[in-house]
Amino acid sequence: MKYLKYLLIFVPISFVLEFLHYNQTWIFVTACLAIVPLAGLMGEATENISVHTGPKIGGFLNATFGNATELIIAIFAIKAGQHDIAKASIAGSIIGNVLLVLGASMLFGGFKHKIQSFNQKASVNSATLLLFAAIGLVIPAIFLNGITTPERRLAYEGLSIANAVIMISIYFLGLIFSFFTHKDILSCEKEEECEAKWGKAKALIVLLIATVVVAFESEILVGSIEATAKNLGWNDMFIGIIILAIIGNAAEHSTAIIMAIKNKMDVALEIAVGSSLQIALFVAPVLVFTSLLFGKPMDLIFHPFELAGIVIAVLIANFISQDGESHWLEGAQLVGVYIILAFAFYFAPIK
Fold it and tell me: Domains along the chain?
């Protein structure tokens, strides 16, 4: 994490380039690099605040605000009318967390430890919730496929809102299950892991400042996407699923890998699968509700390519969680699948 903070230099650079109306591609690149350390600071501040508030409220804060960066970026995409980018970033975060983050964690952790164990009950519970989330995202596309009547848009919006209400309800029920009725499943492995490094006031100030700056950077980033895609020959799906998903989760990626190397696979698994759960069951519904406030309703009808990637990731998560053990070859396979999907999205002839 400390090395990522050096990237904060790109915050003023991106602001200056935007002010000077410089090349849009360079604005996009500097905004991406600026968001990476800011996302890390937001996550670190949230973790420190959660320690001061106690395990129950703390767990809720971590679970609810762990993907604030992705949420902010997607909100600005919706505000700009770029719904496809917002939905692609949702799909990309789910796919990236399960395949890239979890895969890299198992790969590097497995290099140091022959076999790594994790809490089977907790992982199966998360994988089951993730399967439900995938069903919630797939059903609208299946049932509304082929509808060409004028009522198509109304059907999309109605089903998407209904799905969003159900999914976010399941999300909060999952939090109650994890932090209240079955709180023994998710607890700190060691006491020192729950110690705050920052004071409460410092954590709140850092969180507030980082959130505000991320909002500005997100607006700059979203504003430069169209020109960057044209200049580099990228499609919107590749930008949302691969690029935006990686920059929004970079800090979490490094943390999960470090935890796995320390043989704390439970923590790494929770970061990867838990983050995917939050994106699917919390961030996606919130974006649907937010789009209504902007007067630009966003549906939850994903492209078949995006759905294929999500289903693949979810099925793999369910297989991985069954035996409670992992090794480096499983990690290599997950990363391999992610790279295959990345190339597929890159070469896909989609606007």
Answer: 4-347 (1.20.1420.30)
